[in-house]
Amino acid sequence: MPRQIRPPMVDSSSSESDFVCPMMAALDEGSLTVSKTLSEFRNFFDLRTDVWDKFRKELRSFALDQYSLDDLKDQESARMQAAEDFLEENGEKYWGTSENRKKYLDPKALQQSPVYMCTYPKKKEP
């Protein structure tokens, strides 16, 4: 079973201003890279297994409508912009409401402490 990409447990005495979004931390620390398995990416997004293929197809189609495959392969800026645009258009669908999270996210992820979940459009940056 692939290792789930999660930061260490946040101390409950930490204030909300000390909170670091686990998804952003994983990206900043480099623990999620293009060399990771698809299962590790699915775990990172907390998506249910039966939703994963549909999500990947939507993301791929969305990105290729905006950029060429060569640009996506060669330019990190194109990948980042495609991801941000996809999130802007589809983030609410997957992570935006409690109802949608129950519909699309892995039940195990929903049972974890809310500290581990990033919800859209809430985005905390330094």
Q: Structural class of the secondary elements?
A: mainly alpha
What percentage of the residues does DSSP assign to strands (E)? Answer: under 5%
Strands, count = 0
Structural Rg: 15 Å
Order of helices and strands: HHHHHHH
| Ends distance | 33 Å
**Given the C-alpha coordinates, what overall shape results?**
globular
Q: Secondary-structure map with pairings?
A:
Elements: H1 22-29, H2 38-45, H3 49-66, H4 69-74, H5 76-96, H6 98-104, H7 107-111
Helix pairs in contact: 3-5, 5-6
Give structural notes.
This protein has 126 residues and is mainly alpha-helical. It has one domain. The chain contains 7 helices and no strands. It is globular. The N and C termini lie far apart (33 Å). The N terminus is likely disordered.
Can you give me a brief rundown of this structure?
The protein has helices at 22-29, 38-45, 49-66, 69-74, 76-96, 98-104, 107-111. With 126 residues, it is an all-alpha fold.
List key phrases describing it.
globular; 0% strand; mainly alpha; 126 residues; disordered N terminus
